[in-house]
């Protein structure tokens, strides 16, 4: 049976509620030794795990999926306590369960090809697991990222180490108990809690970790890529940040565009990689759009995230809060603040790191607030006249995760689908709309590689060519 162990050097770190600002847990900080031990355990477990049939590996994942579904309430509460996510918006335990259910069935898709095209040979490819692989996850939707990475890695026959985020380690620690209950063999599925330094950095440069899937900031992604290059050139998949544009034409369904773009930048208090934080609205409908957007955005229900009536929690911690404040200050200098100047009335007088819905108009395109990820309920709305102009503006960032266009004109929609530099383009929809069987990932500095039901297995499989020479008769 897998086992929960405390940090070998006894170190812990305090976790503060972003609502009450009180310590809600003392969390074990994985030391260098703990990280090395986890890798060694995973390495020892690999031969037996990879020798199982996909059906037998899947049995453990099916059990884990069932346990996750039963744990929805507890996990929602833990996330509310650690990073302020309102329980009313929590779906992650079910979404994580769906990942394990799916990957419990698809291990048989790990298949190579064969070729008779070389005379005198039968050639083929094998798809084989890497061995020990690692996942480093962020704090904003932790349980989903936990599952999205570990499920395909396990299905492919790898053994896995997941490192949780120091800002939201509680659901990952909870899942480690479920892994134990599901009966995974020791060493197959390991969970570490701790900061980027020490455990994250060690995993990134570990010689025995052969693939690493990361979701988080661009800055950390680059550090991980560099550590991989300097150590064993492990295969690295990076899902990074965004500065997603949504473009609204004058022929669009304006009500739908308002509702969806507002939800995109408010959900999870704007702490979403693909949130449409830049809106470009055609000048003919801009006034109407802005009024309706402001009215909707102002109607949020901020409060204690454990209260089922709350739909807007605090920012995840003090650092995130101060970062958003810094960008709001920059925004004031660069554009016109039309929503967010009033202090937020928070239900039940909950204190904490709350940021009001904030809207800026007429911000100059070159400003930092138009280029950098803010990760808060802050949106910049600018106007445009022509297609050419707005495509140029929308593409003028180093990010490229998700872009949207609202229009009834199919030809225009297709022109935009082609022209936008983005891993996903939504037509008459915006983030967080997604599709499980479509690849998700970024152009430019939003990342490398893709995730999704039809592609993630591939991220955790090596390809081997086998050449078989046939003697002449
Ligand atoms: P972060 O980069 O600060 O931290 C992410 C993880 O990396 C944490 O577990 C952290 O401990 C670890 N880490 C930090 N330094 C490290 C190092 N030197 N080596 C190895 N690991 C290290 O990001 P965050 O603040 O947790 O998450 C927010 C970011 O994640 C945003 O930029 C957001 O856009 C991005 N994100 C992207 C996606 C996507 O699918 N593209 C999804 C969600 C979030």
TrEMBL record:
<dbReference type="InterPro" id="IPR029510">
    <property type="entry name" value="Ald_DH_CS_GLU"/>
</dbReference>
<dbReference type="InterPro" id="IPR016161">
    <property type="entry name" value="Ald_DH/histidinol_DH"/>
</dbReference>
<protein>
    <recommendedName>
        <fullName>aldehyde dehydrogenase (NAD(+))</fullName>
        <ecNumber>1.2.1.3</ecNumber>
    </recommendedName>
</protein>
<dbReference type="InterPro" id="IPR016162">
    <property type="entry name" value="Ald_DH_N"/>
</dbReference>
<comment type="similarity">
    <text>Belongs to the aldehyde dehydrogenase family.</text>
</comment>
<dbReference type="GO" id="GO:0004029">
    <property type="term" value="F:aldehyde dehydrogenase (NAD+) activity"/>
</dbReference>
<dbReference type="InterPro" id="IPR016163">
    <property type="entry name" value="Ald_DH_C"/>
</dbReference>
<keyword id="KW-0560">Oxidoreductase</keyword>
<dbReference type="InterPro" id="IPR015590">
    <property type="entry name" value="Aldehyde_DH_dom"/>
</dbReference>
<feature type="domain" description="Aldehyde dehydrogenase">
    <location>
        <begin position="4"/>
        <end position="466"/>
    </location>
</feature>
<dbReference type="Pfam" id="PF00171">
    <property type="entry name" value="Aldedh"/>
</dbReference>
<feature type="active site">
    <location>
        <position position="239"/>
    </location>
</feature>
């Amino acid at each position: 049976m897998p086992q929960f162990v405390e940090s070998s050097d006894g170190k812990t770190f305090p976790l503060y509620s972003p609502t009450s600002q009180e310590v809600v847990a003392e969390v074990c900080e994985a030391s260098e030794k703990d990280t090395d031990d986890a890798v060694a355990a995973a390495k020892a477990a690999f031969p037996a795990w990879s020798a199982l049939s996909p059906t037998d590996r899947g049995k453990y994942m099916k059990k884990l999926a069932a346990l996750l579904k039963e744990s929805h309430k507890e996990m929602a509460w833990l996330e509310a306590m650690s990073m302020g996510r309102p329980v009313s918006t929590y779906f992650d335990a079910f979404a994580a369960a769906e990942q394990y259910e799916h990957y419990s069935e698809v291990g048989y898709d790990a298949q190579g090809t064969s070729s008779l095209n070389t005379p005198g040979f039968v050639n083929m490819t094998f798809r084989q697991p890497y061995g020990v692989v690692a996942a480093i996850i962020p704090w904003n939707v932790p349980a989903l990222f936990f599952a999205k990475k570990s499920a395909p890695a396990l299905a492919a026959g790898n053994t896995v180490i997941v490192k949780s985020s120091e800002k939201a380690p509680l659901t990952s620690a909870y899942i480690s108990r479920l892994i134990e209950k599901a009966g995974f063999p020791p060493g197959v599925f390991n969970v570490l809690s701790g900061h980027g330094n020490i455990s994250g950095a060690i995993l990134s440069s570990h010689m025995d970790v052969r693939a690493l899937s990361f979701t988080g900031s661009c800055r950390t992604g680059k550090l991980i890529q560099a550590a991989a290059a300097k150590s064993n050139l492990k295969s690295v998949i990076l899902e990074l940040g965004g500065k997603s544009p949504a473009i609204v034409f004058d022929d669009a369904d304006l009500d739908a565009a308002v509702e969806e773009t507002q939800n995109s930048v408010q959900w999870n208090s704007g702490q979403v990689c693909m949130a449409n934080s830049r809106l470009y609205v055609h000048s003919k409908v801009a006034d109407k759009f802005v009024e309706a957007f402001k009215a909707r955005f102002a109607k949020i229900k901020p409060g204690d995230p454990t209260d089922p009536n709350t739909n807007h929690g605090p920012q995840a911690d003090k650092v995130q809060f101060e970062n958003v404040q810094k960008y709001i200050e920059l925004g004031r200098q660069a554009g016109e603040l039309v929503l967010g100047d009033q202090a937020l009335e928070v239900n039940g007088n909950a204190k904490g790191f709350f940021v009001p819905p904030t809207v800026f108009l007429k911000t100059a395109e070159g400003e930092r607030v138009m280029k950098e990820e803010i990760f808060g309920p802050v949106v910049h709305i600018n106007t445009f006249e022509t297609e050419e102009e707005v495509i140029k503006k929308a593409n003028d960032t180093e990010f490229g995760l998700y872009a949207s266009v609202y229009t009834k004109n199919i030809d225009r929609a297709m022109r935009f689908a082609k022209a936008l530099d983005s891993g996903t383009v939504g037509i008459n929809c915006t983030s967080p709309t997604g599709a499980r069987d479509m690849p998700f990932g970024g152009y430019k500095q939003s990342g490398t590689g893709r995730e999704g039901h039809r592609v993630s297995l591939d991220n955790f499989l090596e390809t081997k060519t086998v050449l078989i020479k046939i003697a002449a008769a």
